[in-house]
Amino acid sequence: MAVYLVVDTDLFDPTAYEEYKLKAKPIAEQFGGEYLARGGAMDVKESDLWTPKRLVLIRFDSAEKAQNFYNSPQYQAVLPISKKAAKRTVVLLEGI
Hints:
Layout: E1 3-11, H1 14-30, E2 34-38, E3 55-60, H2 63-71, H3 73-85, E4 86-94
Antiparallel strand pairs: 1-3, 1-4, 2-3
């Protein structure tokens, strides 16, 4: 079953975040991640529980591949760049 990595990002250092994006994307792709959306335009219809800022959606073939990506030494090495540049919410969501 496919798993989607959903990330909502509130940027406060866009320059540093660009460095993170350049390094993180090829790592996600090494683990089979396919970027479906990356900071595109949003039309929020309801926001009682949450108001997203900037969404990223990455599809993986399985939860194992998504977990392996997120927990990999390669990704963990670049993750601090993101944490320095933004606040984030990260969710793994099972889907079809």
